[in-house]
Amino acid sequence: MKYSACHSLFIAVFLLAGILPCAAHENTAAEERSPLPVLTIQGRDHGIVPDTDEDMGPPLRRLLSTPEYQEVPVTIVLEKGLYCLHGAVKDFAAVRLENLKHITLAGAGKETFFVVRNPSIGAFALINCEKVSFQNFSIDYNPVPYAVGTVLLVEHQSGFLDVALSPQFPQLSEPWFGTTRKATDQWGMIFDAQKDSLMEGVSDRIHVQYVKQLSHSAWRIQLSDKSDLQGIRPGSRYLHLAPYVQGGALFYGSCSDCSAQDLTIYASPGIGIGSFNSSGLSLSKIHVERKVTSARPLSTNAEAVHSQDDRDGPLVENCRLMHMAGDGIVIYGMPHTITSLLSPTELRVLRNSALRQGDSVQLFDAQRGEHFVETQILELQPAPCDEDRITLSHELKGIRPGPITLDLYNQSRNGSGFVLRNNHIENHRRHGMIIRASQGIIENNELRDFGGLGILIGNSTSGPGAGLPCCLSVRNNLLVNGGRSRWYAVSRNSASIQIGCFTAGGKTAPTRAIHDVVLENNDIINPPGAALYLGAVRNVLVQGLQVDYTQTEGSRNSSAIMVENGDNVKMSHIRVNSASRQLEAAVSIGEDCAQGDAGVLIEEIQLSGAVDTQLVVDKRLP
Known about the structure:
The protein is 5% helix and 44% strand.
């Protein structure tokens, strides 16, 4: 392999191609300021009083929805204290707010405390709101939406656990667990008996078939899959989650230019903060964490930040996201299934989520991993059977008219234009970040002790959502100790940073559909196999990557950097230090990569520590 000095030229090519400008889109909605004077209102003057058992949801809704307050900017101030929110079982959220404008709800810090008394509903939901800001308060649940206990017996043959539930937490007989019937959405997690974290090397999600009460606090947990018992021992801590609740602590639906700042979320039966079909969302100094004064092992029952089908991506900065039962930050759009091709430019799709005339879309065969076209919707009309009829601006070539099964990805409604900056994500069940959107920045984030992978960029093989990202900048991030749970470090493409396009079966796609990505000055310590995986990609720059394997034994044999089916992949200033005897190479280049330096070019690389590790393994034909 030839190592030449073309780094400056490569940067220039990326600049000319527009990758850095398109990735540098900044969300400035939170910086806008209204020229109108702000009206300040005290919540106490309108019956919103802390430290009572009364439901403060109704007076809060009435105050926030006062018609005259929609005409001028209003700040509603709440004093310190505990505010109860009850809600009804069938409510989406304890406080549902619709069509609000220019309103700020401000507390006096963490001591302004909203406590939801119903663990089967969300806390706050904003629908069709504009420039609404939540600031300086905390959200909690009492009772919490999960049960916690200690494993008494592990029965591998019959596939069950016997657990003793702690009286500090709800019992599984509570109605919000739904355990009187068999339920596919019941599941649990295993925590280490000694360490303050999920148990390493066991399944991160224990699928439960049903539960049976043995005594007041003793329960039998019958598993759907006996293999989930592997590694679990008596004395381990067991956590049983209530069924997932859509929404969560704070939800934005079809909102514009809303924000949340200095909020603390201690618990949620679903996500921490979620958004759908929204734009201009700004999240700053959000803390998702366990209550330190309790014995809780968990914060939220799902992701900390969840963006679905948003018109543009969120700004998430200076947040601390810890101890979730899901991922850290997820940004994606839902795919649409194409059912038939009527002509080279006309097709029908199942109506799943919003499509609009003028939207940019991609057509992708998820089974074979083939990317067909990037185009726009010229015309959209409703069709029978919950379908839409779409006219495209470009012809779909290579496919005959008739019934087909392809995916349509809406690039205009998948959270593109996001910025994730200066966030700390730690000690949670699954992945740090899942990105299926384009034109984004991921910088100065710290991810530690995650059960799954660190940063995943690419289309989905198992959910959530889908998308083929491009024009991304990933720089100055630190990722430490990934893949701690059982399943996430075993695949050949498991990596702290995984960038790739895959088929439905998880194979690297034949189409190099992920493109124009810059990775600069990232540090990775103890990755789950590879530190960086690049699969089915083109136009990727990796500069200043530092990789350290401090453990002598890893989960499997791997290379620090793996490139499969890549083209125009450039690397420079790569440092790999390894104590692991299982590290095969600093860089592995797959046989399906483009030939020569035009395919994969390495300018400078250093390897230290591992005696038997090769510098570069190039599997391409000479």
